[in-house]
Amino acid sequence: MSLTERIPRRHRGTTALIAVLIGSTGIQTTSAVATTLFEKFSPVSVSGLRMTTAAVVLLLIARPKFWRFTRRDWLSVVSYGVVSSLMNVFFYLAVDRIPLGVAVTIEYLGAFAVAMFGVRKFKDGLFAVGALAGVVLIAGPTFGSTDLLGYVFAVMAAASMTGYTLLSGKIGSGTEATAGIRGLSVSIAIGAIMWSPATALALPHMTVGDWGIAVFIGAVGLALAFSCDAFAATMTNPAVVGVFFSLDPVVSSLVGLALLGELLSASAYIGIALIVLSGAAVTWRANRSAAVITTHTEALQVIRTAQMPQTPRE
């Protein structure tokens, strides 16, 4: 029995939220650390180093038997590897040119699109819009950069995040060969290979300190964070996870306050409140829906059992 199956349906929404929070904390913390390498290396090289160290960590832990992958498995891991690596590279290119808050906000539009595509009820759409409004309020005061290319990179990161959000649930729920983090480890390795030329340019100039940062941002900001995102997607659906990803700007703001002493504006705190309320509402509805499904399934099992012909006693 997989870890997903061991968690009761009524608790899976909360579990997914916690997983996204852990992943978001890892991503935002390591993003602040990764910018220190931009003075020596290009954002593409830093992203390549991040994926390479993450791939090594994941492959050592998962030890996937890729020769057992089916054609569908390979399609899944390659698609996820390409999309996630593009999202990383475009995001780092954007952060190098425009404020972090702006880059995070624009990138979130990709997850927001998935959340809106998955809307089945008007209330769910309102929660997604509420989360988006919160993100805009957090990043609003930072808008003002005139670097058009930075905005282009951020939009491309958002487009990649759309695919990332949709594929996260499939990467850990395929066949036994790709279950857990096995498929994820191969996907990240594929992404690392894609950008290996840029990584190779940085290697001759790496110091012990640089390697320490590379391992940290790879292990925590990618291996751990992406594993949490993939797990969260198996707990619920891409639309719900898309709303949960709105927590990224919240976590980014809190990390900035804790590590950099950056005070937030009043509108930013209102935005945080909006996102927290929207996320709480979505979590509650996800748990409630799961509980209803569980109750319905159990009722059907009782009815079927009652309708089964009884074996007469001898």
From TrEMBL:
Protein's UniProt keywords contain Repeat? no
Checking Pfam families in the record gives: EamA
The primary location reported for this protein is: membrane
Subcellular compartments? Membrane
Bilayer-spanning residue ranges: 42-62, 74-94, 100-119, 126-143, 149-167, 179-199, 211-232, 239-260, 266-284
| Membrane topology of this protein | Multi-pass membrane protein
What keywords are assigned to this protein? Answer: Membrane, Transmembrane, Transmembrane helix
Where do the EamA domain residues begin and end?
16-139, 149-278
Q: Which GO terms describe its cellular component?
A: membrane
Keyword presence, Membrane: yes
Q: Which InterPro entries match?
A: AA-Vitamin_Transporters (IPR050638), EamA_dom (IPR000620), EmrE-like (IPR037185)
Entry's family note: Belongs to the EamA transporter family.
- Annotated protein name in UniProt: EamA family transporter
Instruction: Recall the taxonomic lineage recorded for the source organism.
Output: Bacteria, Bacillati, Actinomycetota, Actinomycetes, Micrococcales
